[in-house]
Amino acid sequence: MSTDNTSLKLEKVMQDAEDFLPILGTDFVELYVGNAKQAAYYYQHAWGFQPVAYSGLETGRKDSVSYVLQQGKIRIVLTSPLQPEGDINAHINKHGDGVKMVALWVDDARKSYEETTKRGAKSYVAPYEMEDEHGKAVISGIHTYGETIHLFVERKDYEGPFLPGYKTYATKVQAEDTGLKYIDHMVGNVGWNEMNKWVDFYAKVMGFAQMVSFDDKDISTDYTALMSKVMSNGNGRIKFPINEPAEGKKKSQIEEYIDFYNGAGVQHIALATDNIIETVTQLRDRGVEFLYVPETYYDTLLDRVGKIDEDLEPLKELGVLVDRDDEGYLLQIFTKPVLDRPTMFFEIIQRKGAQSFGKGNFKALFEAIEREQDLRGTLQ
Ligand code: TYF
Ligand code: FE
């Protein structure tokens, strides 16, 4: 018995020793946008995020403004500049609206910074303390692909609405939530032949491991291609697929993204629900636009994935895709880009055992994306 205990403990010690960057979860995703007030309205009323916190002129912040919204465990921050100069303006000028910060919730923001920078991470901001009447938080940050940042957020001594300096924010009219629960994964698009460089970054600098791999043969249609690898942290809560463009007859959707975003950046955020039919019905009724999937996809669906709990009709009506792996199945659907530039979009995903990413749907999905590219004239 004692031997068992010892080996169990040893295993635990080894795991702890290996995970030099324990991450509790995604803390928040911050977008730099041209007009945070209106973006906040969109995410509240179309997506069902609830207002949580605010900082801006009314709280004594002079140069920029942030709205914090939440649904389930998903927290998004929308930030706009109030002055003509500075980093936020430069970011928006170059990229349009887009994700700047992928903030990770940690127990120790100082150690997270030390462990990653000593392994080669480029510093964005050294650990600093923020404090107000609700307590203290510690923040640090490193650069990842493009101009995207990973912040480390330590909030164990803070009990306010978001972070020190923010006040509670409420609106008179609040939309109902749409059943979104947590961020399942966040995908980065990087430039030609850069995928492995960023895979190595997540492995060496952040201690992540590769989850699944598929080469360009797996992800090409008759026209376009891309490559992708999925990196995951020690406890599996953080999953970051990385895509790079690949050569095809026509322009890869990843290249289109890079062209319009002017570099690498966050391509899609996958949000989990436990009832995809209800969530997508709500989102669609509120004006969120999803990619169109031809009805023929559903002709052979059940032959491919076997028996599923859901009725086929609503899935077909909404355009929800289904895929199975050896652990179970998943349902997923993709929005059109949520910006004027064909850059960022969202995925809604419901997992029923499957821990993969919908490999069986890539062909149907990429053909749907190609039809959109064609309408934009960006498929050539
Ligand atoms: O995250 C994934 O891997 C899936 C599929 O450009 C996918 O959602 C992969 C690449 C891409 C769009 C979707
Ligand atoms: Fe995805």
From TrEMBL:
Cofactor mode of binding and number, as noted: Binds 1 Fe cation per subunit.
Domain of life: Bacteria
Location of the VOC domain: 25-155, 182-336
Pfam families xrefs: Glyoxalase, Glyoxalase_4
GO molecular function term, any single one: 4-hydroxyphenylpyruvate dioxygenase activity
Keyword Metal-binding set for record: yes
Cofactor(s) required, per the database record: Fe cation
Keyword Acetylation in annotation: no
Annotated residues for binding of Fe cation: 185, 268, 347
Biological process according to GO: L-tyrosine catabolic process
Keyword terms: Dioxygenase, Iron, Metal-binding, Oxidoreductase, Pyruvate, Repeat
Family classification: Belongs to the 4HPPD family.
Protein name per its UniProtKB record: 4-hydroxyphenylpyruvate dioxygenase
